[in-house]
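Incident log, support desk, overnight shift.

02:14 A customer reports that sequence design results differ from what the structure should imply. Their input is reproduced verbatim below. On-call engineer (initials T.W.) acknowledged and began investigating.
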């Protein structure tokens, strides 16, 4: 059993199923930019837009290209759907006891979460809020600060190695979901589960108890 006061969630492939959507965003961009999608596919998940662009080619790392990707994303994210069990899990939590920490832009996170049926939390740490994104611990440190708790009082849900590293270095208990990566990729997480259906959660006097079913 795990005890905590708050939860922090990644968005893509953790709460919302955007893997196909994200790939489609970058396919549209790569066609417009004259880049082979296969050249960028490994760089597109769990990173800021600017980081992906710089890994593709330093010449693409500029405001004009970032804005183009954001425009495509805002249109495509309306097709996002919830990860199985995520909505039911969130509905068991007190509204102000959970937060978002994502490498994506705020508007994209808002769009995908809303399209998937989530009520947006009060605390959302997105790409615009931090100088250094995942795997740097800054996103989770800031989310815990805005929740008014210490990082070690939070449980984080993630799906990517970069996200796991970020959460662990921030000092959070980290649960990895097997939605996009293998167990060996996520070996640094404190707990690895195939989905939210593997977990039960109860709350009493401000403390959550999380357990494997």
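02:41 Re-run completed on a clean worker. Output:
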């Amino acid at each position: 059993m795990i005890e905590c006061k708050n939860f922090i969630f990644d968005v893509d492939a953790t709460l919302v199923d955007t893997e196909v959507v994200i790939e489609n965003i970058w396919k549209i961009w790569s066609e417009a930019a004259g880049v082979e999608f296969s050249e960028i596919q490994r760089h597109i998940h769990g990173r800021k837009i600017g980081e992906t662009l710089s890994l593709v080619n330093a010449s693409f790392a500029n405001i004009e290209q970032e804005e183009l990707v954001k425009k495509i994303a805002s249109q495509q994210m309306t097709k996002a759907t919830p990860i199985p069990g995520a909505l039911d899990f969130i509905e068991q939590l007190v509204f102000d006891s959970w937060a978002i920490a994502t490498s994506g832009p705020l508007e994209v996170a808002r769009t995908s979460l809303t399209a998937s049926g989530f009520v947006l939390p009060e605390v959302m740490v997105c790409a615009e809020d931090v100088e250094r994104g995942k795997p740097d611990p800054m996103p989770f440190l800031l989310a815990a600060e805005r929740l008014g708790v210490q990082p070690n009082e939070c449980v984080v849900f993630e799906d990517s190695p970069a996200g796991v590293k970020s959460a662990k270095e921030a000092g959070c208990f980290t649960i990895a979901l097997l939605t996009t990566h293998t167990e060996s990729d996520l070996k640094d997480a404190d707990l690895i589960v195939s989905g939210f259906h593997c977990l039960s959660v109860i709350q009493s006097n401000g403390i959550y108890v999380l357990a494997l079913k």
